[in-house]
Structure formats: C-alpha cells, structure tokens
C-alpha cells in the first residue's frame, strides 16, 4: 500500500503560497506546496490541517483535490488539495522561506520536481 503525502495549495486572490525547502540536501532551496505524510489512522484532510499548522502556524479548511496524483516512488504518492486560510499567522517553521506568487511567476520558480505536475492546474486556478 502506498504512503500518501498531502500538499496544500493556499490561494489568496490571484496569488499562491509557496514554501522553500530546507531539507533534504537534494531538495534544499527548491519550492513546493507545503504539506506532509498522512499518519496511520488519519484522514488526508486531517493530515493536511496538522501539517500546515506545524509547518506554517496556520489553520486551514481543506477543499477539493487539485490535479492528479503524482507517484514519487513505488510506495509514495503525492496528492494536492486546495486549502482556505481560516486563522493563524504565517511563519516558515519548517522551511527556508515562504512567498506569494502569481500565475506568471509559477514557471520561473525552481520547483521540487514532483510538484511541477500541478503547475497547469495552479495556473488555471490563479487565472493565468
């Protein structure tokens, strides 16, 4: 059975929140949608709420799926959801940096390879 990793697309107006990785070394400095692994007994939505609280210090409501699943390996599947900010204050607890980007900036970022699969869907959501 595959381990699911959930990622949150937090969109505000016409901008998307992206997070710059601190680790592992081969991904450090690359940009991603924040999120993390679903723990045993957790729903995907619960995991995403927990991960974004831990990583960013924010409260979110998880909405619809974004794009298709991305297989990272035989046992790891990445799945993105749209999320809506409901509280908290953004802070990069687990990342090098956070930034808001427009659809025109999506293609110019150095993305974590797996997250690139969602760029067309993100551009549509941002009106690009």
TrEMBL record:
Cross-referenced PROSITE patterns: NUDIX, NUDIX_BOX
CDD domains: NUDIX_MutT_NudA_like
Position of the signal peptide: none
Cross-referenced InterPro entries: MutT-like, Nudix_hydrolase, NUDIX_hydrolase-like_dom_sf, NUDIX_hydrolase_CS, NUDIX_hydrolase_dom
Name of the top EC class for this enzyme: hydrolase
Superkingdom, taxonomy of origin: Bacteria
Nudix hydrolase domain segment(s): 1-124
Cofactor: Mg(2+)
EC number: 3.6.1.55
Family classification: Belongs to the Nudix hydrolase family.
Record's protein name: 8-oxo-dGTP diphosphatase
């Amino acid at each position: 059975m595959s381990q699911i990793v959930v990622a949150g697309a937090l969109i505000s107006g016409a901008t998307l929140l992206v997070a710059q990785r601190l680790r592992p070394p081969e991904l450090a400095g690359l940009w991603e949608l924040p999120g993390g692994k679903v723990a045993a007994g957790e729903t995907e939505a619960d995991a995403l709420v927990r991960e974004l609280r831990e990583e960013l210090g924010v409260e979110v409501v998880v909405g619809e799926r974004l794009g298709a699943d991305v297989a990272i390996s035989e046992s790891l599947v990445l799945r993105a959801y749209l999320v809506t900010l409901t509280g908290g204050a953004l802070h990069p607890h687990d990342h090098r940096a956070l930034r808001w980007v427009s659809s025109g900036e999506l293609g110019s970022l150095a993305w974590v390879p797996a997250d690139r699969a969602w760029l067309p869907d993100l551009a549509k959501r941002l009106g690009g």
